[in-house]
Specification:
Chain lengths: 764, 82
């Protein structure tokens, strides 16, 4: 499908909906600043007297820190401060943070600055602040760290063995019965399921079973982590940072530094990509402490190697999928066992892999077991649909094999077993209105699915599911005296959310979107809002914006009622104007007219909404991928790709399409190229974009998109989160296409040319 | 009575492995209080680190959400995202 057709798909739906602004494609409010380079990102902040901070990192994958001597560094002219873990408060096992889910501040603190052991190559052990970058580099080299190098382990299954090097002496596996008496690298065992899988497999005519392996991959955002902290004599710290949530940065930084939250103010910079990787902090607490010691502002900017070595990738791991079905394609049972690498501290997303793998399907008997395993790699962070892509790679690849065994079309197999409204999800609850079946039907009817293939080409399909979330959100809305409106929210704009907020505000107010200015406030200028993540902003913050607009509309009607000397009930709001229903002549006052006279009718007009948004609608997607395999080299090239997704209602279709395209490309990179490569000492060997190869535009065809719109009843415009789902299907869609093209089932990602060539040669 | 399903790990740690129960409660707060009376200690665990799905809708940080007589209530991990 071409772009013009995509546009029609969305606009036809919008016209049918009756919306005037929702579903249109205005130019994004931040577009000019960004394309002209004027937008301020994390590294763009500069303050008078600012120092340069540098982090000193462990060169060992696993080592006891015997001593750190900072004397020589501190003696160097121009060095103003050095910090180590001794400068940070010891934090107990406190659980809860202000992010999406519970966090361990103890682990977070020890990840930001190693305390007694360095747990991965690149783990921060000290930091220095100096007047110039050259002096900071020189001082970093003068900090003497004595290490006792320990054996390391990088792979989940290796780390689970009884004789594996132990990362934490105090880590005892949760979720086992009886409770273990000896520590291990397994943090927790999770189990989800319904029914009786043994009975389900006994009833099956065909059973497919495979073992799968994936590698740790990075979110790959373009902007590296960067911040400036200015801690003043009164103990107040102001932080300028690029992140996915200024309130998250405030809470995490204050807690790690042992400060009251009110002592930290965070100014959100523009963000050059996050994808979940900027839902935590690495530099900010260090910059705060350096600034506190030096009495000057401190800037720290990671280089690309720092980002790869020390910031959260997502888990690599292993998965074993087993699926049984009747001859007619009815799936009778599904099992999934997974071991995910959490990095140096517990907290892989394996439980979400367990919950999502079979979620697109209506299966009576499902069992999913997951193990969260610590290894000597950087602590993982969220990455789009955390945990789901690896699970879907296993399940959707096994389904492809099942379809072949049954002689069924792979979409027909999925249609036969698709979850619909009322289906009990494999993780327990019953689905409300969902649009998975609609994505399968759109895929089946899409010209791509029936297009002829060339030599050495194969086609694969795969699906994916994500929950989507709401959460605490705030919005304020100020009517200016000229009738323009400012919409103030507190969530960094990663994927075009300013535009979405502006559109929804304009729709509710009944005015042109050009009259609405969306702004993003700092932590001292707005009520709390959860971070930008989990595909929640357009849904949840959008709900707050709509409610703030409702608040404004009530006030506008009140003002008009005063002017006309009627009850507010006699005033309707329509198309951006108050209508006096008691007037025979259809008397009206526009928003602009009411704003012009606000001083005479009661003063400024502004609305607000502080909510904990509920009603998030789950998302489903189905992708079609065509791959051409070069049988001489084993190189796989994507020749055509279509991403289809139930998006609820697309508020700004261009940005929804962008989410689908971006997620698909990241998933394709995960499938074909990306992996962390370590040497035998556990040190990362490919910490840069030249050696860690993400797909670029010249590698791929245009990613076509189809926006299926099954409105979410939990949002007035039908919004569903869209950013997580599109990274889930590509791993299996690519592998299934490779299987069709080369007649080999690749179960180990990435499907690099040497690996595929060996498989092709082995199959001969 | 609402059908209440605990996470298996929580049931194992606090409820002698009893993952599925029937309890009458008006809202999540009352449900957790009743569970805590039956299985001391489970309340703190459920209040602090758990989402709840009520009749298919997931609430990330619930307390006052109403529960009906025939509701299906599943305690789940808090959902993250990227």
């Amino acid at each position: 499908m071409g772009k013009e057709e995509q546009f029609d798909t969305a606009t036809q739906s919008v016209e049918a909906s009756g919306y005037k602004v929702v579903g249109t494609r205005p130019i994004r409010p931040d577009g000019i600043e960004k394309v002209t380079g004027r937008a301020n990102f994390g590294a763009d902040c500069n303050l008078p007297g600012m120092l340069v901070g540098r982090i000193i990192r462990s060169p060992h994958a696993h080592a006891r820190i015997v001593s750190i001597n900072t004397d020589k560094a501190l003696a160097l002219a121009g060095v103003k401060a050095v910090v180590t873990s001794a400068d940070f408060p010891e934090i107990g096992p406190k659980a809860r943070g202000a992010g999406e889910a519970p966090v361990s501040f103890r682990d977070m603190s020890r990840n930001i600055m190693a305390r007694d052991k360095a747990l991965y190559d690149g783990h921060a052990v000290a930091a220095v602040a100096a007047t110039t970058a050259a002096i900071a580099d020189q001082a970093a080299a003068l900090i003497e760290v004595e290490y006792e190098v320990l054996p390391h382990v990088l792979d989940a299954r290796e780390a689970m063995k009884p004789d594996a090097p132990l990362l934490h002496d105090d880590l005892f596996t949760k979720g086992l019965d009886p409770k273990p008496e000896t520590p291990s690298n397994v943090s927790q065992r999770f189990e989800f399921g319904i029914g009786d899988t043994a009975a389900g497999f006994a009833a099956a005519d065909v059973i497919v079973e495979h073992d799968f392996t994936t590698q740790c991959v990075h979110q790959g955002y373009i902007e590296t982590h960067a911040c400036v902290a200015n801690t003043t004599e009164d103990g107040m710290s102001t932080v300028w940072a690029s992140s996915q949530g200024q309130f998250m940065v405030r809470n995490y930084s204050a807690t790690v530094c042992g400060m009251d939250i009110t002592k930290v103010r965070v100014m959100p910079a523009e963000i050059g990509g996050g994808f979940g990787g900027k839902t935590t902090v690495y530099l900010e607490p260090v910059a705060i402490m350096l600034s506190k010691k030096a009495g000057k502002p401190v800037k720290i900017v990671m280089n690309r190697e720092d980002v790869f070595r020390a910031t959260g990738p997502t888990s690599g791991g292993h998965a074993h999928a087993k699926i049984g079905a009747k001859k007619d394609g009815t799936i009778t049972a599904g099992e999934l066992t997974m071991e995910y690498e959490a990095g140096a501290f517990p907290g892989s997303p394996v439980q979400f892999g367990c919950m999502t793998g079979y979620a697109p399907y209506d299966i009576e008997n499902v069992k999913a077991v997951g193990f969260d395993v610590v290894v000597n790699r950087p602590k993982v962070a969220a990455y789009r649909a955390p945990g789901a892509p690896v699970a879907a790679f296993a399940v959707e690849s096994a389904l492809d094999e099942l379809a072949k065994k049954l002689g069924m079309d792979p979409i027909a197999l999925r249609e036969k077993n698709a979850a619909t409204e009322g289906t009990q999800a494999a993780y327990g609850p019953k689905f409300q209105r969902i649009g998975y079946l609609e994505t399968l039907q759109a895929a089946k009817n899409h010209p791509h699915y029936s297009a002829p293939l060339g030599p050495n080409q194969g086609r694969g399909v795969a699906s994916g599911f994500w929950f989507n979330i709401g959460g605490e959100s705030s919005a304020a809305m100020h009517v200016n005296e000229d009738g323009t409106v400012e919409v103030v929210t507190a969530n960094p704009d990663i994927g075009g959310s300013r535009a979405s907020m502006g559109i929804m505000a304009a729709e509710v107010l009944g005015i042109d979107v050009s009259q609405v200015k969306p702004l993003i406030a700092d932590t001292a200028s707005s009520a709390y809002s959860m971070l930008t993540g989990g595909s929640r902003v357009t849904f949840a913050v959008g709900k707050a914006v709509c409610e703030a607009a409702d608040d404004v509309v009530v006030q506008l009607r009140e003002r008009a009622a005063k002017v006309w000397d009627v009850d507010i009930e006699a005033v309707e709001w329509k198309d951006g104007a108050a209508i006096n229903t008691k007037s025979d002549s259809g008397e009206s006052l526009s928003l602009k007219a009411i704003a012009n006279t606000a001083g005479k009718t009661g003063g400024p007009i502004s609305g607000k909404a502080n909510i904990n948004a509920t009603g998030a609608g789950p998302g489903f997607g189905t992708h079609i991928c065509d791959i051409e395999v070069d049988p001489e080299t084993g190189r796989s090239s994507v020749v055509r790709y279509t991403a289809i997704q139930d998006v609820g209602t697309a508020i700004h279709p261009s940005y929804v399409e962008g989410q689908l395209q971006g997620g698909a490309v990241q998933g394709i990179g995960w499938a074909l190229n990306e992996e962390y490569i370590y040497d035998d000492k556990g040190c990362l060997q490919n910490g840069g974009f030249l050696d860690y190869r993400v797909p670029v535009a010249s590698d791929l065809p245009m990613i076509d998109t189809v926006l299926v719109e099954v409105p979410n009843p939990g949002h007035r415009f039908g919004v569903r989160g869209v950013g997580e789902v599109p990274i889930i299907p590509p791993l299996a869609a690519v592998a299934n296409a490779v299987a069709a093209a080369a007649d080999v089932r690749m179960t180990d990602l990435p499907i690099s040319p040497p690996k595929l060539l060996a498989a092709i040669d082995g199959a001969k | 009575m609402a059908k209440v399903v605990l996470q298996r790990e929580v049931a194992r740690d606090f409820a002698n492995g009893e993952a599925e129960l029937e309890i009458l409660a008006d809202d999540v707060r009352q449900l957790i209080n009743k569970l805590d009376l039956k299985f001391p200690g489970i309340g703190e665990r459920l209040r602090d680190r758990t989402a709840v799905a009520i009749d298919g809708e997931i609430f990330q940080d619930p307390l006052l959400q109403p529960i009906h007589e025939n509701s299906e209530v599943y305690f789940l991990p808090m959902i993250e995202g990227g």
